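Appendix B. One record, verbatim.
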Amino acid sequence: MLIYDIVDIIFDVMMFLILVRVVLSFIRHDPYQPLFRYVYEITEPILAPFRRLLPFAGGLDFSPLIAWMALMLVRNIILGIISALI
């Protein structure tokens, strides 16, 4: 069960960081501040592939939404496999 919990926490943290990045995109902030840089460095590898696939729609970036759904799908698949093995 420990592996299940660790994987679950990792996905929770990633989804939380994507949410933080979305909120940061709506507020003015210093992109060089270490906390903001950390959020961008962690989430960019996840969001970049989706951003390349999706065109901007009226200036809106839907890649975080699609990445969030993809993470939830992958999370459910991986946790289902782990549950079946335990």
